[in-house]
């Protein structure tokens, strides 16, 4: 089992999760984070830290595509290990459905 970041992270990109991760398995895109599934130790400390409730265990139904997205972009994006400010309009985007198709950016973030 691993944890995955889902579409509610898009355009929010809270980094509270990054700060508590003991193995630094988060990677930063332009407008969201992902978890490297091979680096995640399944400790679960990140899940309750996400203000947007965007982190889920991959054992939940319907998350197969998110496991693929997390694995693909963790290999392309830079590692992030310290907390930063969320995106400026994060609260407005939190909870909006189906953000991936229209708003996902494949561009990398800054990383550390």
From TrEMBL:
<dbReference type="InterPro" id="IPR022569">
    <property type="entry name" value="Fd_C"/>
</dbReference>
<keyword id="KW-0004">4Fe-4S</keyword>
<dbReference type="GO" id="GO:0009055">
    <property type="term" value="F:electron transfer activity"/>
</dbReference>
<dbReference type="InterPro" id="IPR054829">
    <property type="entry name" value="FdxA"/>
</dbReference>
<keyword id="KW-0677">Repeat</keyword>
<keyword id="KW-0408">Iron</keyword>
<protein>
    <recommendedName>
        <fullName>Ferredoxin</fullName>
    </recommendedName>
</protein>
<keyword id="KW-0813">Transport</keyword>
<dbReference type="GO" id="GO:0051539">
    <property type="term" value="F:4 iron, 4 sulfur cluster binding"/>
</dbReference>
<dbReference type="InterPro" id="IPR017896">
    <property type="entry name" value="4Fe4S_Fe-S-bd"/>
</dbReference>
<keyword id="KW-0411">Iron-sulfur</keyword>
<feature type="domain" description="4Fe-4S ferredoxin-type">
    <location>
        <begin position="31"/>
        <end position="60"/>
    </location>
</feature>
<feature type="domain" description="4Fe-4S ferredoxin-type">
    <location>
        <begin position="1"/>
        <end position="30"/>
    </location>
</feature>
<dbReference type="Pfam" id="PF11953">
    <property type="entry name" value="DUF3470"/>
</dbReference>
<dbReference type="InterPro" id="IPR050294">
    <property type="entry name" value="RnfB_subfamily"/>
</dbReference>
<keyword id="KW-0003">3Fe-4S</keyword>
<dbReference type="InterPro" id="IPR017900">
    <property type="entry name" value="4Fe4S_Fe_S_CS"/>
</dbReference>
<feature type="compositionally biased region" description="Basic and acidic residues">
    <location>
        <begin position="88"/>
        <end position="99"/>
    </location>
</feature>
<dbReference type="InterPro" id="IPR000813">
    <property type="entry name" value="7Fe_ferredoxin"/>
</dbReference>
<dbReference type="GO" id="GO:0051538">
    <property type="term" value="F:3 iron, 4 sulfur cluster binding"/>
</dbReference>
<dbReference type="GO" id="GO:0046872">
    <property type="term" value="F:metal ion binding"/>
</dbReference>
<comment type="function">
    <text>Ferredoxins are iron-sulfur proteins that transfer electrons in a wide variety of metabolic reactions.</text>
</comment>
<keyword id="KW-0249">Electron transport</keyword>
<feature type="region of interest" description="Disordered">
    <location>
        <begin position="88"/>
        <end position="112"/>
    </location>
</feature>
<keyword id="KW-0479">Metal-binding</keyword>
<dbReference type="Pfam" id="PF00037">
    <property type="entry name" value="Fer4"/>
</dbReference>
């Amino acid at each position: 089992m691993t944890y995955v970041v889902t579409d509610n992270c898009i355009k929010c990109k809270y980094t509270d999760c990054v700060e508590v991760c003991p193995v630094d398995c988060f990677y930063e895109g332009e407008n969201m984070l992902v978890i490297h599934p091979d680096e995640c130790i399944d400790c679960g400390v990140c899940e309750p830290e996400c203000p947007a409730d965007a982190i889920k265990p991959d054992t939940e139904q319907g998350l197969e595509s998110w496991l693929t997205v997390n694995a693909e972009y963790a290999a392309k994006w830079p590692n992030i290990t310290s907390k930063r400010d969320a995106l400026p309009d994060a609260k407005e985007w939190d909870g909006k459905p189906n953000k991936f198709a229209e708003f996902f950016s494949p561009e990398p973030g800054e990383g550390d």
